[in-house]
Amino acid sequence: MYVRGTVADEVDVRSVSTSYGESELAEVPLRLADDGIEPPGNATPALSDGGTAAVTDGDETTTVTLWNKWTESAALLEPGMELLVTNAKEEEFRGETQYATTGDSYVVVEPSFLVSVTSIRNWVECPRLYYLNKLSGVPLNYPVVKGTLVHEVFGDLLRGRDLEESIDARIEERGLQLGLLGETPEAVVEDVRENAKAIEGWLEQGRLTEDDNWRSEQLLISETFGIRGRADAIRRGAPVELKTGKNLKKEPRFKDKVQAACYALLLEEHGGDVDTGTLLYTKNSALDRNEETGDLTPAKDFSMGDGLLKYVVRLRNEIAAMEVSNGVPTGYEADAKCEYCFEQDTCMVVSGRLDQDSKAGQIGQPLPEAEREYFERFYRAIEEERREVHREYAKLWEQSAEERADDDRALIDLEFVEKRSLEGGRWELRARREGGATSKLREGDLVLASDGHPVRGDSELARIERLDDEIVLTADEPVEVTRLDVYPSELTTDRLLVAMHDALLKGDARRKDILFGRTEPEFEAIDEEFIGNNRNQNEAVTKAVGAKDCALIHGPPGTGKTYTIAQAIRAMVERGERVLLSAFTNRAVDNALEATLEQLTAVIDDDQVVRIGSESGVREDMAPYRLERAGDPDDRVAKLQNAQVVAATTATCGSRVMKEQTFDVALVDEAAQLTEPGTCAAINLAERFVLVGDHEQLPPVVRAENELSESLFERLVDLYPDAGVMLDRQYRMNQRIQAFASTEFYDGQLRPATSPVASRTLDDLEGVSRDALPERLQDPVSFVNIEGDRSQYTDSEEAARIADLIESYEAAGLERSEIGVIAPFRAQVSEISNHVPDDVAVDTVDRFQGSSQEVIIVSFTATGTLEGPIFEDYRRINVALTRPKRALVLVGDAQALASDPVYERMLAWARR
Ligand SMILES: Nc1ncnc2c1ncn2[C@@H]1O[C@H](COP(=O)(O)OP(=O)(O)OP(=O)(O)O)[C@@H](O)[C@H]1O
Prior knowledge:
Layout: E1 3-7, E2 12-18, E3 21-32, E4 61-67, H1 70-74, E5 82-85, E6 89-93, E7 96-100, E8 107-109, E9 115-116, H2 117-125, H3 127-136, H4 142-158, H5 163-173, H6 175-180, H7 185-205, E10 214-222, E11 227-235, E12 238-243, H8 254-269, E13 276-281, E14 299-303, H9 306-324, H10 344-354, H11 369-398, H12 401-406, E15 410-411, E16 415-421, E17 427-432, E18 446-450, E19 459-467, E20 470-475, E21 483-486, H13 491-506, H14 509-515, H15 535-546, E22 550-554, H16 561-574, E23 579-583, H17 586-600, E24 609-611, H18 633-642, E25 645-649, H19 650-653, H20 656-659, E26 663-669, H21 676-683, E27 686-693, H22 712-719, E28 724-726, E29 729-730, H23 735-745, E30 751-752, H24 755-758, E31 781-785, H25 796-811, E32 819-822, H26 826-835, E33 841-843, H27 845-848, E34 853-859, H28 874-881, E35 884-892, H29 894-897, H30 901-911
Parallel strand pairs: 4-7, 9-11, 12-13, 22-27, 22-28, 23-25, 23-26, 24-25, 26-27, 29-30, 31-35, 32-33, 32-34, 34-35
Antiparallel strand pairs: 1-3, 1-5, 2-3, 3-4, 5-8, 6-7, 10-11, 11-12, 13-14, 15-21, 16-17, 17-20, 18-19, 18-21, 19-20
Helix pairs in contact: 2-3, 2-8, 2-9, 4-5, 4-7, 5-7, 8-9, 11-13, 13-21, 15-16, 16-17, 25-26
The site of adenosine-5'-triphosphate has 15 residues, from helix 16.
Organism: Natrinema limicola JCM 13563
GO biological process, one term: DNA replication
Domain DNA2/NAM7 helicase-like C-terminal: 708-894
């Protein structure tokens, strides 16, 4: 029986005498979860006695007794924490039903907090090491890269690839990284071969017989234990872990066993019965085995005892409890010996700078109070964000397939078409979807591809190569795909933490004075005209070029941000500076790069401009500039080091390769959409920085509500008004269209840049005549009143009317591709898509930011009364209303809209 609930009060741990002698017990007052708890879909004998969950009718509090070793986990509990006990037994005590652990029970603290296997492994070495790794990320160093290479070769061998071919191919793929590390392919081949030989030899021995049943790299998630990880390999249902080190002992290292045990737990939950684990030490070569030097066989098996599995869950509980209570480990939690630790110095420095209690001690001066306070605040905010990612994971099993599809988080009921093996042992998978099914998934995304359930079924990480009615994926394993789910990645969260750590602990003093408002940014006087026809753009470039610390360019819609960025980069390049061009999205990076290239043709050679990004992330016309990472190390690294302009998203700026680069200046577009640490990922790499954005448009995309939702751009604009310039002439909208946004969002400062812009109408377009439109659509701004169908997130009447409007525009000579439709909710986007032809772009505001169209139709999907903000906040409506160049049509219920002051003013303007 499963018991799950919330700890209702303090937990009491004590000793009692039983017929077996002294025992420890903890009585946990537990408020049972509303519906008790359903056992996971495929609960196995290891986890379940087949009994059902404790079911309650609401707020019922009971007592759960945790026996013996589980009292260690009980001691971590605080009121409010979640607790799960498997295989519990029911007991009557003074007429009340209570529960207690049995010999088969597992006790899980905060089961929805997903701890990674790597974290557990680090934690068992030293909890402080776990924390330090989280803060500083995985560095680019040779042992790490070699480890990855050996793992990749191992996977290839399992998939039947030839050893030499695999080694060559994998080393080639990592050309750039190896080049940055100053390694030659010859030396690396030797090194990897030495490690891989041992693996191959071992594989040969028990050669891959049919019943050996190997599988490489499996992503595993446990909803019961709150653990996730990727096992190197599974043989006959048991985990095999690869280690690039040497181990002369008979037994595997303890931390390695712990890691394998984590996978064993995960496999058991997936229906396995795991009794052994294998560690492969690739530096061991059985050939030189002799008694004096120790046991040099590469593979060491051990039996997977019950005690070890439970110990692993207790370790995991320690991490979850610490994280959920916002704790910072000190190192005292473990009996690790600091004097033998490679990380001792780092540990002492971090403890010293952040004034943290630590077993290793502190060295150095603590950071100023304000910086430590900032660190703690943002650390918490980022961890909250991580928890939101975990909630996304939980939805993988809490929501039904249909619910996930309705939420746009999954494509379900696909028809599996075929699997085809690719060169290098990977697979191409194809599946077909019913027309019309939409989701958040996009080409290039990593997704969970499964044969029915992303956690309980056969599931793999796959990349979407093509997303039409036929979906093409690539993956390491040939899953018979019938379902795709959004993969909730923690990568972004991890990188935010590292970027913040780097800004504060490695950042230069002057930069921090700027970030913390301790000094005014300074500017060098520049006496040069960069842009002749636009005063504020010229001032923006002057500021960007002359900034000693930072410049802030506020660019409302269509005001030539991109053009200004390109001019600024040109001026910087002419001054011999190395420039990082970054933005939140790939699209913005490519846009800005395209404009920059136009400016740079006369100034530098094409090969001095490099775009860093994945093949699917970089737009086709910018692909020639994309830095191929594979190839000869020297050549790859030369290509990067020679580049005077490097363009990459801010997420990529946090990658190991980019973190090694330095720039004179970082120019960041879409800066108002970036969190503070997200911005730091780019500006950490440069001496000075220029942020370009508009805080009246979309704010940072974050899941949790906390300080992450204010951008550094916005904070600095407030802090240093003199470091900023607002571009005030827009090159996009007819005057009538821009009027509302200008008064409502830009203090009336926004003006058309030229009179042709001010007076542009649909008549300017070839073959289009406004006279052919119904009268009410002839004005550049019109409002169509519609009562609507009263559903909350969709409105089929609005959708139908929009389809009519599109027909009217087509009849007047417009191309469908010149019309865009914006709706506040995804459900309404689907609804409208079902009504209008495929080639009309229909999407949410977020997908339209940064683009423009001749005609924009906005669906408000509001009827009767307004219950909440339609577009979440007014910044979104600003974006929606500023997309069109020549015509804007608002469709909605006037009465509903009039109940909100901003929408009421909008109505007045549209109906004028
Ligand atoms: N000073 C200028 N002189 C002439 N044309 C300009 C000038 N500045 C911008 N433009 C033109 O105005 C248009 C819009 O400029 P740009 O694409 O740079 O705007 P943006 O502010 O980046 O737009 P968005 O708000 O979509 O990000 C472009 O066609 C650009 O060439």
